[in-house]
């Protein structure tokens, strides 16, 4: 299945972002590159917010967020209630993020994993589906927080 995907990174992940974007396009996906556009230092929250805004606006079904560790940009993306961003470093976590959490954005750390592992994570993420069922109520709580009694 082909998807429309937004992708963004900070300077630390610019090279990986560019390679993943090209790789996704080669596979027929529509990729919207939200920057950064070079290796000059930038602030990762700005790019996490861009992904969140694009997902919330319906510009894409999925997002790929990258920074040096993946942590900062995932925190920024998750500030938007429309985003369920999962930081992953291997394909099992990527699949489970979709299956159990209906994640719509994947975050990767360019300083922590290589390009082939990053591609494997993205491919697994895009091929996986939300299992629904017992997970639906939990996912609903992620976008509409409610507290259960302890």
Q: Your description of this structure?
A:
The chain is α/β, with parallel strands linked by helices and 150 residues long. It has a single domain (4-143), classed as Ribose 5-phosphate Isomerase B, Chain: A (3-Layer(aba) Sandwich), CATH 3.40.1400. The protein has helices spanning 14-26, 44-56, 71-77, 91-101, 115-127, 136-143; strands at 4-9, 30-33, 62-67, 85-87, 105-109. It has a five-stranded parallel sheet with strand order 2-1-3-5-4, sandwiched between helices. Helix 2 (44-56) packs parallel to helix 3 and helix 4 runs parallel beside helix 5. The mean pLDDT is 95.
What is shown here, in short?
One of its GO terms (molecular function) is ribose-5-phosphate isomerase activity. This protein is α/β, with parallel strands linked by helices.
**What general outline do the C-alpha atoms trace?**
globular
**Rg, Å, rounded:** 15 Å
How much helical structure, as a percent, in the residues? Answer: 40-55%
List low-pLDDT spans: none
Largest sheet: 5 strands, parallel
Show the helix and strand layout.
Layout (H helix, E strand, L loop, with lengths): L3 E6 L4 H13 L3 E4 L10 H13 L5 E6 L3 H7 L7 E3 L3 H11 L3 E5 L5 H13 L8 H8 L7
Parallel strand pairs: 1-2, 1-3, 3-5, 4-5
Helix pairs in contact: 2-3, 4-5
